[in-house]
C-alpha cells in the first residue's frame, strides 16, 4: 500500500542488513578519510556549499578502472562491499518475487532485471564547507536544501538511515536526523515530510525507470526527495544506496534503445 500511494516502503527483518551495511559504510568512511586524493573518489560541491565525495561501484564489485587501486589502499572496502551487496541482492530478489506474484504475466520481468541488471552502489560522504562556522542544529531551521528535490533515474533506490561521524575524532554521532526530505501528496496536498529512518530497515524508493523503462504490472509513483545537511560543521554524513538498473541488453519500453545505449547517451548529455 505504501509503494502504491507514496512510492516508498521500509522493509524490516532483512537478515544481516544492518551489520553488513554498517561495516561497509565504516570502511568507506575510513578509506575516504585516509586517502583523500585517490583517483577513484568523485568530488562535487552542492548548491549550499556542502562537499560531496563519492565512491561508485558496480554491483559486481568493479569500480571502473580503479578497482586495483582501491584493493591496494582500501582492502576492507572491497571485502565489506561483497557482504553488503549479497544482502541487497537477496532482498531485491525477494522484493521482485513478491511484486511479480501479485500481477498476472506483466509484459516486463522485474525478476530478470534484478538478476541481470547493471546495478550501481554509491557511498557518499557529505561535509559542510569549512567556511561555515556552524550549520543549523535542526533541518527545519533552514529552507535551503543541500541537494534539491529530484527523482532517481532507476527502477528502485535501496537505502537506509545515514551514518554520521565526528570529523575531529572519527567517532560515530548517534541520534542524528536523516537529512532526507520527501515531497508526498497527503490528502491531495504536496507536503514536505522528514522521515525518521532507522539502521535496521531497508528503505525502497521508486525511481523514474520503473514506469518509463518497462511494464511491471504496478503503478508506483517515483519519489520526489531532497537532502539537507542537518548537523554542525564537524559532522560527516555518510550515505549508502544501491540503484537497481536494467540489464545492458534490455530494450526500453516504447523505444528501440538498449539500456546500455540509453546509459551511454545519458552520460554524454550530463557531461
- Helix count from the secondary structure assignment: 7
Overall pLDDT score: 89
Rg, please?
A: 18 Å
Number of individual domains? 1
Organism: Aphanomyces astaci (Crayfish plague agent)
Protein name: Isopenicillin N synthase-like Fe(2+) 2OG dioxygenase domain-containing protein
Question: What's the quick description here?
Answer:
The chain has 271 residues and is of the alpha+beta class. Helix content is 30%, strand content 25%. Residues 131-141 have low confidence and may be disordered.
What's the layout of helices and strands?
Elements: H1 2-6, E1 8-11, H2 17-34, E2 42-45, E3 51-58, H3 67-73, H4 75-101, H5 110-116, E4 120-127, E5 147-150, E6 156-159, E7 163-166, E8 172-173, E9 180-186, E10 189-193, E11 202-206, H6 209-212, E12 224-227, E13 235-244, H7 259-270
Antiparallel strand pairs: 1-11, 2-3, 3-4, 4-13, 5-12, 6-11, 6-13, 7-8, 7-13, 9-10, 9-12
Task: Explain the overall architecture.
The chain is of the alpha+beta class. It has one domain: Jelly Rolls. The protein is 30% helix and 25% strand. The protein is built from seven helices and 13 strands. A hairpin with a 2-residue loop joins strand 9 and strand 10. The protein is globular and about 55 Å long. It starts with a helix and ends with a helix. About 4% of the residues have low confidence.
Highlighted features:
271 residues; Jelly Rolls; 7 helices; nine-stranded antiparallel beta sheet; globular; alpha+beta; single chain; 30% helix; four-stranded antiparallel beta sheet; IPNS-like_sf
